[in-house]
From TrEMBL:
Name of the protein described by the UniProt record: Ferrochelatase
Keywords: Membrane, Signal, Transmembrane, Transmembrane helix
Domain of life the protein comes from: Bacteria
Source organism phylogeny: Bacteria, Pseudomonadati, Pseudomonadota, Alphaproteobacteria, Rhodobacterales
The UniProt record lists the keyword Membrane: yes
Stretches that traverse the bilayer: 46-63
Amino acid sequence: MIMTKFATFAAALGLSASSALAGGYVAPVVDVEPVVVDTRPASTNAGLVVPALLLLGVIAAVASDDDDDDDDDAGTTN
């Protein structure tokens, strides 16, 4: 009696295992969405920044230029 229960259990286990693996292993398919790269130019325009900096440099050089010849008349009196 025990042997028939064991054989029945083994047969049921064997049949259920074979139906569970009937299709075999299938690797999961993962769909990867493409990455969208933003190719807009930067908000600062280098075509305007560089000349503006050069203009500021010229203005600073002109403003700091000291060509006053006040030293010539410093020691003489009329």
